[in-house]
Amino acid sequence: MKWIVLFDGDCNFCDASVQFIIKRDPYEHFQFASLQSETGKELIATYDIPVDIDSLVLIENGSVYTKSSAALRIAKKLDGLWNLLFLFTLIPRPIRDTAYSYFAKHRYKWFGKKVGVEACKLPSPDQRKRFI
């Protein structure tokens, strides 16, 4: 079963993160949808995720993970040494999530926000099949 990553489609950093995951996921464990897309909105409703979520969301086998837990669970499945980041789960979640929330709060200021359709990078045909 594929794991679903919901991401902020307006965020440059989030878009770069999706591209990062795709490059390091040769077994195609993950599928992707932006939080703003129709599919994203349906998944938010289906899994009772708050509509004002300000986090990466991972849906894994019917369970929902957000913030640092989502990021670290994703890292666990990536090729290379990225899976070692999962060791950060040894840090208590409130501490990890505080750092995650600080970063999330400032991501638009630091990395910018997409403006208009022309800012979107079109995925290759192989990548396109991974977006739901």
Mass-distribution shape: globular
CA(first)-CA(last) distance? 14 Å
Strand content: 5-15%
Q: How many β-strand runs?
A: 4
Uncertain parts: none
Return the structural class. alpha+beta
Radius of gyration: 14 Å
Residue-averaged pLDDT, rounded? 90
Q: How large is the count of helical segments?
A: 5
Output the strand order for the largest sheet.
2-1-3-4
| Overall helicity | 40-55%
Largest sheet: 4 strands, mixed
SSE order, as H and E? EHEHEEHHH
State the assembly state of the protein chains.
Answer: single chain
Give the SSE layout.
Elements: E1 3-7, H1 12-23, E2 30-34, H2 38-46, E3 57-60, E4 63-66, H3 67-76, H4 93-111, H5 125-128
Parallel strand pairs: 1-2
Antiparallel strand pairs: 1-3, 3-4
Structural commentary:
This protein is α+β, with helices and mostly antiparallel strands and 132 residues long. It is 41% helix and 14% strand. It contains five helices and four strands. The chain has helices spanning 12-23, 38-46, 67-76, 93-111, 125-128, and strands at residues 3-7, 30-34, 57-60, 63-66. It has a four-stranded mixed sheet with strand order 2-1-3-4, with helices on one face. A hairpin with a 2-residue loop joins strand 3 (57-60) and strand 4. It is globular. The model has no long low-confidence stretch (mean pLDDT 90).
